[in-house]
Amino acid sequence: MKHCAGQIKYLIAIKELSEKEEFIKCVSISRHLGVSRPSVSKMLRCLANHGLVYEDFANSVVLTPEGEEVVNEIFSSFNEVYTFFHKFLRLPPEEAHAQAVVFITEFPQDTCERVKHIVRRTMKKKDI
């Protein structure tokens, strides 16, 4: 299933927040993304309707197994694209993160795959 840019941004935020916080609240997502709480609620409803987060997101946002799978797929691209912006283009971590999010949400999947291939090939050569 193809996911829109907004869904991907929220899934990335949920993943990143879950690494820092035990319980993810709507307000945490709101602050992390710089959006209003009603916007968060609306997108969480959309994610729940697609089976990516559990319905009871008012108390704590939790990814479903399908949501976890989608996040893992997103992060396989995200990590390599982030590496490209940070290590290859030497952008500061925060800027590289922001650019990687824009890249994986706005560019076609085949372009992301090409960048991933270049990053993997180059990093493999550096290990030798």
What order do the helices and strands come in, and which of them pair?
Elements lengths: L4 H14 L7 H8 L3 H13 L15 H24 L4 H14 L2 H19 L1
Helix pairs in contact: 1-2, 1-4, 1-5, 2-3, 4-5, 4-6
Structure description:
By secondary structure, this protein is mainly α. The protein folds into two domains: 61 residues, Arc Repressor Mutant, subunit A; 59 residues, no CATH class. The protein is 72% helix and 0% strand. The chain has six helices and no strands. It is elongated, with a radius of gyration of 15 Å. The N and C termini lie far apart (37 Å). The model has no long low-confidence stretch (mean pLDDT 90).
Which terms summarize this structure?
128 residues, mainly alpha, Arc Repressor Mutant, subunit A, 2 domains, 6 helices
Count of β-strands: 0
Number of domains: 2
Task: Figure out the total of helices.
Answer: 6
How big a fraction of the residues is strand?
under 5%
CATH class of the largest domain: Mainly Alpha
The Rg value, from CA coordinates, equals 15 Å
N-to-C SSE string, H for helix and E for strand: HHHHHH
Mean pLDDT: 90
| The CATH superfamily title of the largest domain | Winged helix-like DNA-binding domain superfamily/Winged helix DNA-binding domain
The parts where pLDDT drops under 50 for at least 5 residues are none
Short description:
This protein is mainly alpha-helical and 128 residues long. The chain contains 6 helices and no strands. It has 2 domains: 5-65, Winged helix-like DNA-binding domain superfamily/Winged helix DNA-binding domain (Arc Repressor Mutant, subunit A), CATH 1.10.10.10; 69-127, no CATH class.
